[in-house]
Amino acid sequence: DFAFSFNDRKNIGFFSSNRTGVDQLYSATPICGVEAIVMVRDANTGKPLASARVAILDERNNVIETRTADAGGKVVYNVDCDRAYTIQASMTGYEQNSFPIAKTHGGEVTVMADLRPIEVIAPIDVVELKDIFFEFDKSNITKEAAFELDKLVELMNKKPEMVIMVKAHTDN
Hints:
3-stranded antiparallel sheet, 9% helix, elongated
């Protein structure tokens, strides 16, 4: 192979080769990838959260893949260049959260996914949550509503004998 040239503006290369015994011209298009390294940690202590669930979503918020963090709270995804992604991290006892990955032209991107511990609600007769809203014209709850319900789930896990009464209101 000989005479390699690369056009940065068009992102394409050309080279000559006589491997077959005849001089020929070939084009070469580079493969572009990004290594997204996600570190899931406790937001208060900075301690890695092993076994946290980490999902990567595309630009339309479709889940591409979900993995479990290793002992160091680390998950690695290999993704395409020039595309935005979102990381969703969750762990029992912590508020779920989302973290954006901006478009980039290759290389390595580190996402610090710091999760806040869910505050334990003091045992009382009535637990009042903030309003739980749904996405407009859909049956999906909002991200903020999911965080609020996570707090109740944590309390229910600690007090399985609890009896829950739910009050709700909706429009047509």
